[in-house]
Structure formats: C-alpha cells, structure tokens
Amino acid sequence: EQRLVGFGQRGRRADARFTLPSRLDDVAALEAAVTADPRDARAWALLGSWYYDKHRVEDATEAWTVALSATEGGVTESHLVALCHRNLAIAAYNARGDLAAALAHFDAARAARPDDAKLLYEHDQLLTIADRPAPERLERLEARRDLVDTRDDLSVELAGLLISVGRID
C-alpha cells in the first residue's frame, strides 16, 4: 500500500503531455493508483482514455467525470481539466449523439485552456456539425487569430469562412 501511494505521487508529478496507457500493466498500475488514492485525477483521466480506446464508453465517461470532480476545489493542471472535458465532448457526440452536451463540454475545455489551438480547431469542427452560422464561427476564429496562425487546419477554416461571408479580399 505504501509503495502504491509513492508510485501515485511520482506519477502525478511526471509530465503527462505524452502519456497514454496502452498495456495491461499500465491499466493495473492506474487502477492501483485510484484504489490507493480515489482523488487521483490524473490516474482517473488516463484510465478514461484507456477505457474509451477499448470501446468501454460508459466506464470512460465515469472515469473522466470522477477526474473532474477530483479537481474541484483544488489546484490542478488546466490541461487535465481541458482533456477531460474534451474527451467527454467527443464521447457525448460520438457515442450518444448528444450535441448539446458535447458543445457544453467543449465550452468548458476551451475555458480551461483558452490558448490551446487544437481545442479551438476541434470546437470549431463541432460548431460546424451544429450548423452554427459562418459569421459566428468567423468571429470566434478572428478573435483568436494568434492561434489560427499556428495551425494549417485553422487557417483553412478561416479562409473558407471568409469566402463564405463574401470577404474575398
């Protein structure tokens, strides 16, 4: 038990930007971590990603929800909050067809990480699916031109929106 607590503490301090569980040993370690510390938001978030990859959507949704509840009231990494909301948005739309929930989760993800260009792009793609008007989407992208300029896919979306509203110049 003491060894697992130490493992969990080291895991929470590690750089998680490129972390994704892929082996059963990884999952066993994460399950041990959440057993030792049920408020380990990072472990829950990673478990959710593994569950979703294995088409265990309900388990993934529960894990990401627990991760978010474990971050409430405490200082946590904004990318973890954004990741959970992003993943919940994708699961809401892809697995349940719940566009309203997906949009709400993307709004929360963008609020947690407003300077994340990938989130801006993915959110815009969902807004396209939601049939939001081109001027509304254009306004969002123009407001964050600094992010648009960092991604080719966002630049292409911006160009298409400019054309669609007649701003060819």
Q: What do these coordinates show?
A:
The protein is mainly alpha-helical and 169 residues long. The protein has helices at 2-13, 24-36, 41-53, 57-71, 78-96, 99-112, 117-129, 134-143, 145-148, 152-164. 75% of the residues lie in helices and 0% in strands. The relative contact order is 0.08. It is elongated. The longest helix is centred in the middle third of the chain and has 19 residues, at 78-96.
Defining traits:
169 residues; elongated
Helix content: over 70%
Largest sheet: none
Compute the CA-based radius of gyration: 18 Å
Counting H and I runs of at least 4 residues, what is the number of helices? 10
Uncertain stretches: none
How many beta-strand runs?
Answer: 0
How would you concisely characterize the structure shown here?
By secondary structure, this protein is mainly α.
Strand and helix layout:
Blueprint: H1 2-13, H2 24-36, H3 41-53, H4 57-71, H5 78-96, H6 99-112, H7 117-129, H8 134-143, H9 145-148, H10 152-164
